[in-house]
UniProtKB/TrEMBL annotation:
<dbReference type="InterPro" id="IPR005886">
    <property type="entry name" value="UDP_G4E"/>
</dbReference>
<dbReference type="GO" id="GO:0033499">
    <property type="term" value="P:galactose catabolic process via UDP-galactose, Leloir pathway"/>
</dbReference>
<keyword id="KW-0520">NAD</keyword>
<dbReference type="Pfam" id="PF16363">
    <property type="entry name" value="GDP_Man_Dehyd"/>
</dbReference>
<keyword id="KW-0119">Carbohydrate metabolism</keyword>
<dbReference type="InterPro" id="IPR036291">
    <property type="entry name" value="NAD(P)-bd_dom_sf"/>
</dbReference>
<dbReference type="GO" id="GO:0003978">
    <property type="term" value="F:UDP-glucose 4-epimerase activity"/>
</dbReference>
<comment type="similarity">
    <text>Belongs to the NAD(P)-dependent epimerase/dehydratase family.</text>
</comment>
<feature type="region of interest" description="Disordered">
    <location>
        <begin position="245"/>
        <end position="269"/>
    </location>
</feature>
<keyword id="KW-0413">Isomerase</keyword>
<protein>
    <recommendedName>
        <fullName>UDP-glucose 4-epimerase</fullName>
        <ecNumber>5.1.3.2</ecNumber>
    </recommendedName>
</protein>
<feature type="domain" description="NAD(P)-binding">
    <location>
        <begin position="2"/>
        <end position="234"/>
    </location>
</feature>
<dbReference type="InterPro" id="IPR016040">
    <property type="entry name" value="NAD(P)-bd_dom"/>
</dbReference>
């Protein structure tokens, strides 16, 4: 996990920046807040699918920084009346290729883009970190959810708050787990290309399994994910075919637009 090697960056971005934004909200009278949280709050799950009532015990600085962010929001809600929805993302994937929007992290850390780029010859072979986990094929299992489904959840979250909804933390996932090796198989199936990959040792801070229960999202927001894994891969593949070098450079931002803040995947993804 990158946050294990660079913890200060994650605390600064996910705790410090959240506090700064909350202070700005208070100054101008904004009383509603959508927070991007993470499944990494749960650490090694005691059971799956994981509900929002599961214990919160992160195993890496990324998870701890997001948990601290949620606590800051709860305290601000109590003290100042700000109402929030904290969305605990599982593994965001896919793209909106019709709008020209996709993943362009530098460096890239997410599994599906890494696998697609390896298949396209845009990067070196993919590394699979750990094949000795207690899972069906020995590799980590994650719950992948299409970014367009996440966008829909955000709109529903805003409507919930505008309707007077109380502060709440909500999982966003599909309730379906896919292993790293199964992702490789899916990328090969969808693209028709081979994914060169190498088996490697485990990384510290990677839980074996993270799969969501999305019952609360269904109950509170009326949200259900509509897109499956193949659609996520198809959308991402379409984006990378059109944008093999990522976003073009723009004036004032030589690395391209948009440059994203640190967002560590929830382990081996």
């Amino acid at each position: 996990a990158e946050s294990v090697a660079h913890p200060i960056k994650y605390y600064r971005n996910n705790v410090g920046a959240t506090m700064n934004l909350l202070e700005a909200c208070l100054e101008v009278g904004v009383g509603r807040f959508i927070f991007s949280s993470t499944a990494a709050l749960y650490g090694e799950p005691l059971e799956t699918p994981i509900t929002e009532e599961h214990r919160l015990l992160p195993i890496n600085p990324y998870g701890w920084s997001k948990l601290m962010g949620e606590q800051v929001l709860r305290d601000a809600s109590t003290a100042f009346g700000i109402r929030f929805v904290a969305f605990r993302y599982f593994n965001a994937a896919g793209a909106d290729s019709a709008a020209g929007l996709g993943e362009d992290h530098r460096p890239e850390t997410h599994l599906i883009p890494l696998a697609i780029k390896a298949a396209m010859g845009l990067r070196d072979e993919l590394k699979v970190y750990g094949t000795d986990y207690d899972t069906r094929d020995g590799s980590c299992i994650r719950d992948y959810v299409h970014v367009s489904d996440l966008a829909d959840a955000h709109l529903r979250g805003l409507e919930y708050l505008e309707g007077g909804g109380e502060s709440i933390s909500i999982n966003l996932g599909t309730e379906t787990g896919t292993s790293v090796l199964e992702i490789i198989e899916a990328v090969e199936r969808v693209t028709g290309l081979k994914v060169p990959h190498q088996l490697d040792e485990r990384r510290p801070g990677d839980p074996a399994v993270l799969v969501a229960s999305n019952g609360l999202a269904k109950k509170v927001l009326g949200w259900t994910p509509k897109r499956d894994l193949d659609q996520m891969i198809e959308a991402a593949y379409s984006f990378f075919k059109s944008n093999p070098d990522g976003y073009p450079e723009v004036e004032g931002n030589p690395e391209g637009w948009p440059r994203l803040a640190p967002a560590e995947p929830t382990g081996n993804v």
